[in-house]
Each structure stands twice: as C-alpha cells, then as structure tokens.
Amino acid sequence: MSCLQVIRSQCTSGHQLSWKCHQNKPPVCAKCERAAAIAQKKAEKDYELQQKRDAEQLAHIRKMADIEEAIAQQDQLMKDSQLAAERSAAILQKEKDLEAAISRAKNPPRLNKVSPMLSNQQNAMVTQNDSTKSDFNVESKSVPPLSSQGNQTSPTNTAGLPSDWYLKPSESEKEWERQKNVEGVSNPHVDAIMNMTGLEEVKEQVLTIKALIGTKKRQGIQFNRERLNIALLGNPGTGKTTVARSYGKLLASLQAIPGDAFIETTGSRLANDGVAGIKKQVEQVINAGGGTIFVDEAYQLTSKQNFQGGPVLDFLLAEMENNVGTIVFIVAGYNKEMESFFEHNPGLTSRVPYKIHFADYTNPELLYMFKKMLEAKFSGTLRIEGGIDGLYTRIAIRRLGRGRGTNGFGNARALQNTIDAILRRQAKRLNELRKQGQRPDDLLLCQSDLIGPDPSMARSQSRAWNKLQEMIGLKAVKATVRSLMEIIDGNYQRELQEREPIQISLNRVFLGSPGTGKTTVAKLYGQILVDLGLLSNGEVVVKNPADFIGAFLGESETKTKQILASTAGKVLVIDEAYMLYGGGAGTGGKSSDQFRTAVIDTLVAEIQSVPGEDRCVLLLGYKEQMEEMFQNVNPGLARRFAIEDAFNFEDFDDRQLLEILNLKLKDQHLSATDPAKLVAIQVLDRLRNRPNFGNAGEVENLLSQAKARYYQSRKNPNQVDIVFEAQDFDPEHDRGDRASTNLSKLFEDVVGCEEIVQKLTGYQQLAQALKKRGIEDRSQIPTNFVFKGPPGTGKTTVARKMGQVYYDMGFLSSKEVIECSASDLVGQYIGHTGPKTKKLLEKSLGRVLFIDEAYRLGEGHFAKEAIDELVAALTLDKFKSKIIVILAGYDQDMNNLLAVNAGLASRFPEEIHFRNMEPSRCLEVLQRELARKNVHLPELDLPVSEGYIHMFNLIHDLSILPSWGNARDMIQLSKKMIQIALLAAMTQGTPNETPMTISVADAINCIDEMYNSQQQRSRATATPKSKANDYPQFSPPRQPPAITPDATRTQSKTEKAPAPPQPPVEEITDMNANPDEEMQTAVAKRDKGVTDEVWNQLQACIQAEKEREEEIKQEAERLRILVKEQIEMARQQQLLAEKIARAAAKDAAEREELKRQREQARLKQLEALQEQRRLAAALEERRRVEEERRKKEAKAQSALRAMGVCVAGFRWINMGSGYRCAGGSHFVSNAHLGI
Which Pfam families match (predicted)? Predict the structure, then answer.
C-alpha cells in the first residue's frame, strides 16, 4: 500500500515544495524553472539590444576616428612646418653662440684688478645678451606666430559656446612646448604640472625656477646653497598638493637637491608630534640623500589651540637654513590663514623666498573640468540636455563660480560636490518616473537635474509651502516669503536668458515675541529652499549663543567655524541671537564681551550671503534687542543679514488666539463652552500687557491651568468628556460685573476717600461703555497719575489699591503694585540711568508702578536723565496703556518736578489731591486701628464727651506743626495705646477673650507726648534741599518758618471749658495766623517814592485785615461758649434723667410725677442736641467759606511770590482791585493775576 504522507521542503531559492511519500522528490522547482526561462528570455533580448547598440557605437567611433585622424594629419603638417622653421632658427642660434664663444676665446676681456671674476662675468653676459638679442630678433621674423597654432586644450564640441567660455591659451604651456620641440628638453614632472587645468601663475613660476637652475648651471655656479623653499597659497581644490609633489620631483630631476625623498605631513600633525617628530622626519630625508618635506595646512602650527606648534616652527626655521641644498621645504595653506604663519617670525619670509598664488578656477576652466570629470565617470556615454556646453551646463557652472574669490571656495572639490548634487537629483527623478511605470533614460541629464526644478512649479508642489500658508496669522511673514519666492522665480528666468540674477540672500532675521512660530517657520523656510533646489540638505539645526561662545580666547572662533562647517547645505537657526551682543540693557551699551564679539566677527567672515551659497543662517530674537545688537556690532553683520527685510512675527490678535485655542482643544480632544472661550481670550488679552507675551505658548499654559482647575472643582475625576467652563480659565471671571461693588468694598477701610472712589467709578463706567460698544481704545482711560498731598494722607494706600481696580477693568495682567523711589530709577554714572529706568518700566508692564517721593527726580543730572527716559518710554506702544505709573509727593515739590520737563506734565495730566485730614477723621482712623487689635477707647464713641473734645483739640494742635503726618501719626499713636492696653490687661488679669480698654487719660498722655516731641523737632533748623541741579530752574517760593503755637497750646491747657466738637473757627484762625507774614508786616518800612495817599490806603487795608481776623476770633469764641453751654445743659439733663430713673416711687401719683419730669428732661436733652447740631453746622459752613477764602488768598500770595515783583519779599496786602506789597512800592492787579 502506498504511503500518502505529504512531505514538504524548500528549493535552493526558498520556494516551497511538497510531494507524497510514495512519490519521488521533484527533480526541479517549477517556480525556479519558470523564473529561469523568463530570465533567459530577458537576457537574450538584452543581448540583442546590446549588440545593436555596440554596433552603432562602433560605427560612430570609427567615423569619429576617421575625422579625428584627418584633423590630426592637418595639425601634424602644420606642426611639422613650424617645427622645421624653429629647428632652423635654433641651429642658427647655436651657430651664432659658437661664433661668439670662439670670438671670446680669441679676445679674452681685460681683467679688473679690484674684482676680476665679477667683471668677467658681467662683460660676458652683456656681450652674449646683446648679440643674442640682435640675431634672434632678425631670424625670428620667419617663424610663424604661436597663436596661429590654435588652442590645443580647448574642447572640440564647442558648437554654440559663447566666446567668453573658451579656455584662454596658456603662454606657459606654449613656452614649454617650444622648449621641448626646439631645445629638445623633456621633464615628466613639468609635463604633469603643465597638464593641469588653469594655474597660469603656477606654471609660469615653475618655468622661471627651472630657467634659473639652468642658468646657474651654465654659469658654472655651485647650486647647493640656493634656497628653493616655496609657499603654495590658495583656496582648497586648486591643486596645491599635486603641484607640491611634482615640484619636489622636478628639483630632484634638475639636481637642485641630491635626492627625491618626499615626506608629506600637515601642520596639525607636526604640532601634535612636537619637535621630536619633525626632527625625526628631517633626519629621515637626510639619510635618504635629500629630498622634499611638504607641510600642508602649515598655518595650523600657529593656531592658538596647538601649543607645540610654535616650537616646531622655530625648529623648522633653523633646519631650513642648515639644510639648504639638501632639503626643500614646501608649505601650503589658505591665503588669509598663512598670514599668521609668516608673522610668527620675520625670518620666515627670507627662508621661503618663493610664493605661488593659486588662483580660483574661472568658469571656462570649471566647465572644462566638468566635462573631463563626467567623461571619466561615464566613459563618454552620458548625454546632457542642451549639450555638454549647453545653456543648462553653463548655468550650473555660473552658480558654482559665484563663490569664487571667497575664503574657502572649494574649486575642484566644489565642482565634484556639484556633480554629486546633479546626480542625486537625477537619481530622484528617475526613481519617481520608474514608480509611475515609465522607462526613463538612465544616461540622460535633463534641465531639472542640472539646475534644479522650476521654482514656480516646485513651490506649488512643496508641502512646506502649503503648510506655511495654512498656519494661523503670520500675514506679514507670508507676504515676505511670497515676495522672496517671486524674486527667486525671476532670477530663474534671468538665468535662462544668461543674465546675472538679482542679488538676494537666503540668510534672514526673524523678529518677534515668543510663541509666534519663528522656529516652525524656520523649518518650513528651509524645506522650501530645498524644494526649490537652493539647498542641498535642508535639515534645520537649532543653536543658541551659548553653543558658539568659548571659554578662552580663540575658542569662540573655532566653535563658530565648526558649527558653520557642519551646517553647510542646511538651515542654521540661532535662537535668541541678541545674546551674542555683549552690551545692552543695564550696561549703557558701552561694555563689550570679546568672546561674543569674536563669534559675530567669525560669522561675518565666514558667511558671504551671495547667490548660490549652499547655506542658510537665520537669526531669531526680539525686535528691540536685535535692533540694538545690529546697531552696535560689526557693520558687516547688517550687510549679511538685512534687518530691514526681516521676517516680522507679529503678536496674535484675539481672533487668531481663539483659532489657536480651538485647534489645541481639538488636538487634545477637549472642548469648552463659548463663554469659557470668551473668558480665555480676555485672560490672554490681559497677559498681552506683560513683556514677552508668549502667544501660542500662553494658550498652552492657560489650557494646563484650566485642566488643573477642572479636576480640582469636579466631583467626578473619572469623567471622560471634558468641557471647560468660564471659571476653569479664570476663577474670578465676573470681576468686571462686580467692579463697582468691589471698588466700594476695596476702599471701605480708607478714611476720606469719597472723591477718589467717585473718580475711579467713572473710569469703570467708561471702560464698561467702551467694552459694550466693542471699542478697543484704552487711551480713553487715564493710566498715568500724579498724587499730591501731605504725608500720611493715603497716597501709598490708594496706589496699592489701584492695581486691583485696573485689574478688575481688564487693563492689567496682575494686581501687583511695584513700589519704588527716585533712587531706583537714577543711575550711578553717565549712561546708567536710562537703561535702569527702562528695566524698571519693563518689570512693571502689566502692573502698577508707584514712584514715591518722585519730586527727587528733579534734583541732579542723572535724575533729569531718568525723567527724559520716562517721558520717552511712556509714548512707546510697548508701554502706552499697558502700565499704570503713579508719581507721588508733596504739592509744591511735585509742581516743581512737572515744571522741569514740559513733556512730563503732558504725560501725567491726571492729578489726585490728598488734603490734610480733619481731627475727626484722624480720631476715626485711630478708632479703627485700635479696634483691629481689640482695644476699646469709650470716649471715641461719644463725640460730645469731654475726653473726645480734648483729644480733638490736641490733634488739632498737632496738625498745625510742620511735621504733622496725618493718618501716619494716628497709626503711630495707636501702637503706643495698644502697648499701654496690653500692659494694663496683663496687670489686671483681663481674660484673653475680653476686649482691652484704655483710659482717656492714657490716650491724652500719648497725644501729649507726641505733640511735645514733634514741637521740639519743629524748632530745629531745617537742612536745605540739595541744589545740585545742573539745569536752570525758577527759585522756589519762600517757605515760612515753622509755626510754634505756644499761646494756643497754653490756652488749651488752662481752659477748663471743653472746646466745641468741630474745630472750624480755631483751624481757620490758626491757619491764617502766619508768623512769617506778621513778621514781614512788622518790619516792613515805607519804600521810597510811595505817596501818602497810597501809604494811608495800604495801612487802612492792613488794619481792616487785622480787624477781620479779630472779629473771626471773637465769633469763634462766642460760638465755642454757646456750644459749651449746650453741652453742659445736655449733661445736666442727662444726670437728672438718670437720678429720676434711680429714684423709687412710693405711690402711683409720685410715680406719674417722676415720669413726667423724666419726659421733660428727655425733651430738653433732645433740644440741646439739636441746638448743638445747628451750631456745629453753622461752624462747618463758616469754616468752609473761610477755607475757600484762605485757599484763594494762599494761591494769590503764592503766585505773587513766584512772580518775584517785590525783591524784598514783603507780604502782599489785598487792596480790593489788586495786591500791594507791604512796602508800598509794588502793585499787581487782579486782572494780571487772573482772578
């Protein structure tokens, strides 16, 4: 029975085979047999095609050979004819030489006794030169000109080639051919040099050295002491190494050196091996019988990184002199770098007498080499669209040649890189066509291979270009890129017409805030350039300034060159490039960092910004800092990076930020309600006021914060669908709706700020109106303020609350208030103040900047510089309406400050005046401060109590003193009272939960102590303010001496009757009693020339003023007595009521009588209180009227003193129609004063 088991195996090609066990294994694999048959058929077909091509090629070669042979025959006939003529001329020359030699032998020259050898040689040379020159010129007329032979090195396929693309005939090659054909000389090493393309100067110098050696030999001069050391200078790829090798062998063949040993090394290797290494090589050459030592890149010996290079070069210097005639030293390097080599030691120039400069290859030479390289690579089988000398080839060579003349131009190496790039483009194109099923010609170079794709077509197919157009915002950037692309399109068309392209640079400056897409656009920009064929690589390499800056001298240059070398063909992005500038903010722009300067200088030297340069460098940074850098560093940087054509990345507006927010929500599978999105945009709008707004980065940060708040506030953290609400983006998102309520609550602890609250409420209403109408005009709301007022009136307190007010209105990104003084703005040396002030303003962006004692900015030169900087900065868009600036100080001092700079007053049009606090307000502040520490002073609750009135009078007396601090003094008093209350509570054992109490006597003692202390200080002589101002200013009005109200103080202590609860009359009397004015009136004498009528009228006005003041005092005294009587009556009625309440009635009738009497006492008490209020209102009205009069009078007196009419400084007396000084000579009318 047959076995049916299936057996599986694989053939040698890996195909699966299967058969049953009773069957034999298949002898062959069907798949392999089928594949072999297909391969055989294909091979036969390919063989037939190859045979056909070979036959056609063979026929072509035979025909070309016949033509070349015919041409060669004609050329040979011409050469034979010319050679025969040259031979005849040479024979004739030699015959003449023989005759001259016989003549010299027969007639030896007369010897000079002083120097016989020199005279003999000179005479012989002169005779020979003269005779040779004469005879040769005659015979040479029959020799045809060399130019008639044609250009032997020109390409044969030159149809349609412009005349300027032909290789120029080499005169050195012609001379060498002449010597070989006529003189019969030969030297394979000279042949090798002559066969090189170009290098006319090199060839000429080689023939000169060869002629020198031949001349020396003919002269019989020993040649073993001739210095033949040579320096080969030029860019890479010019054949320096090849020439060096041939030069050494040439000298050996001419027996200029005894041996042909050749050692090739580099400057870096010599420096690494040290003196011992070069000594060993010198000995090696000497042992070999002499030869050549070739040091390539010799400038590396003087590099700062090679510490052993200097000693090695010093050793070489001596060996060059010791081994003249035995060893020839050849040094090679780039032109600029070799300057440091020869500067190392002055003796190098004399020891290396020959210098050959290798010029960069011209376009015809590059074209010739291009053809030779392709011919060697493809053996003549490659075909080129337009021909090997056609338009597209010339365009490719022109692009390469534009780098000619620059340091580091690669010449032949760069040409090889160009060929490699062409072949890469060809391979990419062929691959794309093969993927489409086509059969392209592998041996054809088309237009796109040679010069890249058409930019207009490549741009439409570029993914990077399309992605750039899809990016949000960036309107200006897109327009700039589009304009650049249009220029590139135009240049492509100009090249097709063989016109020079418009000079543009791929290097660009990107200016903008963070988060605006600079790095993303940089990558897209680089890819676009690659798609257009302008860059060979397109990789984006991001670096920052720290990657360029070295730790020691010379390292910055090295690191910069290494980075530039490694990014050839790529896009190099230098982020925050402004950090390469060593000066800047805080330094006054005067300092310099040599390490950073070295980086910029190297960038300028290495980056050429010429068309065809295979490199793109992008400088990224903030606009202001970048502009400052370009203004202060190497001017060449601005030529290589045109900052006026920079890509300006503008901050995203609200609509664009909303698009970014929606995009990020979509990418992260999140969502948000429409109100939440609106709140998010409002938050971003406030953040925009801060410096360096992060744009898209801020959106990401805001989303991160919203995620954290979402999970903190949600009860179900495992919820998958996340929908953000308004409170997730801003927990206080409704602050704008609560602004008025917040404002009232914010100022509830500030005494006497009703006018300020009213003004700020108006600002809030205006902001809401603008927001409701969709008007974005923040200039309608004031942002710069001047706070004027005495100390302790709440200027600092109100300023601290301004941050919250403007934050609620959405004007600020933070409620923070930055407090500073004038010292924080003023610098210590010239040029320091401006940057310091600017830095403080930048720090305060989006906040409130409160400058206390701002009047000090009017003192000194540096302070004036701070004012100038402040005035200039507040007009810039960077700061305008993005910062709240408050200048605070005393009234007159602030007026003087605003007069220093006219622009300052216009920048601060809003003024808020803080007045001295009334005693009742001061006691209110005192009561609040005590209540905060749980301390109670009962008399403060009873304005009609004797203790309250006593404290009222004492504080009134305090307020008259010059050192009066308003609420500040009240806070200081509260501290002392709290200390007394704490000690008393501890002594009495008062429980902690029970409020502490302080007696009125202790409170009055505290006020007395403060009064006595400040009174003593007021008697001290005040130190005048600094007059260090170096700019003209008006003399300030004379200030009255400190008031010492001893009489008032004594009266307050001796009077037993309490003062009224309101102080208007006393305040008016004291404030009008100006001791300085009284003194001026008392000492004023009648001026000369004053008539009796004027003087009598003046004295009458003075007397009327005194009588009016006396009448005011009497009226105040009368009102005070009435108030005292009413208070006493109310007190008696209160005592009677209390007595009646305590009495115990014995019967109903007596109880009714007592009830009636108690009711009468209550009614009388009410009448007394009403009368007290009436009198208080009358006093308040009188005080208000007198206060207005006093202010008007004070304003008039201040204006009169400022005018300086009265040089004696007398007080001015109101005459009704005007004012006259107390001396009587000067008069100013009301009309002139403007009242």
Answer: AAA (PF00004), AAA_lid_6 (PF17866)
CA 1177 to chain CA centroid, nearest Å: 66
* Residue 1104 CB coordination number (10 Å): 12
Ordered structural domains, the chain, with CATH: 175-359 (3.40.50.300), 362-452 (1.10.8), 458-489+506-649 (3.40.50.300), 654-729 (1.10.8.60), 739-915 (3.40.50.300), 919-1019+1037-1059 (no CATH)
Residue 604's closest CA among 630, 626, 569, 568? 630
State the burial class of residue 1152 (Cβ atoms within 10 Å of its Cβ: 0-12, 13-18, 19+).
exposed
Residue 1086 to residue 1103: CA distance in whole angstroms: 16
Selection from 330, 649, 690, 668 nearest residue 508 by Cα: 649
DSSP per residue, 1014-1050: HHHHHHSPPPPPP----S--PPPPPPPPPP--HHHHH
Q: Among 165-174, 537-546, 702-711, 744-753, which is the least confidently predicted range?
A: 744-753
Give the pLDDT of residue 1048. 36
| H or E stretch covering 647 | strand 647-649
Residue 592: pLDDT above 60?
Answer: yes
Task: Tell me how far apart the alpha carbons of residues 512 and 575 are, in angstroms, rounded to a whole number.
Answer: 11
- pLDDT at residue 619, as a whole number: 93
Helix ranges, 107-235 (H): 116-139, 171-178, 188-194, 200-218
Residue 766, number of CB atoms within 10 A of its CB? 14
SS3 765: helix
CB-CB contact of 583 with 592 (8 Å): yes
For residue range 607-621, what is the model confidence (pLDDT) as tens digits? 877 666 778 899 999
DSSP H/E element including 1102: helix 1092-1142
Label residues 506-545 b or e (16+ Cβ within 10 Å = b): bbbbbbbbbbbbbbebbbbbbbbbbbbbbbbbbebeebeb
Tell me how crowded residue 16 is: count the other CB atoms within 10 A of its CB: 10
Amino acid at 305: Q
pLDDT tens-digit readout, 925-941: 898 899 988 898 988 88
Classify residue 708 by burial, with Cβ atoms within 10 Å: 0-12, 13-18, 19+: exposed
Query: If phi over 0 gives left and psi between -120 and 50 gives alpha, with beta otherwise, what is residue 1082?
Result: alpha
Distance CA 564, CA 1140 (A): 107
**1139-1148 exposure pattern, b = at least 16 Cβ within 10 A, e = fewer:** ebeeeeeeee
Distance between CA 931 and CA 592 in Å, rounded?
Answer: 60
Q: What does the alpha-carbon distance between residue 403 and residue 606 come to, in Å, rounded to a whole number?
A: 12
CA-to-CA separations, 59 to 52, 56, 66, 426, 809, in angstroms, rounded: 11, 5, 11, 29, 93
CA distance 948 to 956: 12
Measured distance CA(874)–CA(308) in Å, rounded:
59
Alpha helices by DSSP H, listed for 913-991, are: 919-932, 946-960, 967-988
Rounded-to-integer distance, Cα 428 and Cα 431, Å: 5
> How far is residue 388's CA from residue 419's CA, in Å, rounded to a whole number?
13
Nearest-Å Rg of the Cα atoms of the chain is 52
pLDDT interval class at 1126 (50, 70, 90)? low
Q: How many CB atoms lie within 10 A of CB 564?
A: 19
- For residue 568, the SS3 value is coil
Q: Please report which confidence band the pLDDT of residue 1006 belongs to, taking 50, 70 and 90 as the band edges.
A: very high
Evaluate if residue 762 carries a pLDDT over 70. Answer: yes
User: Side chain identity at 507, as an amino acid letter?
Assistant: N
Q: What is the DSSP letter of 386?
A: T
Helices 696-713 and 674-687, packing angle to 10 deg:
130
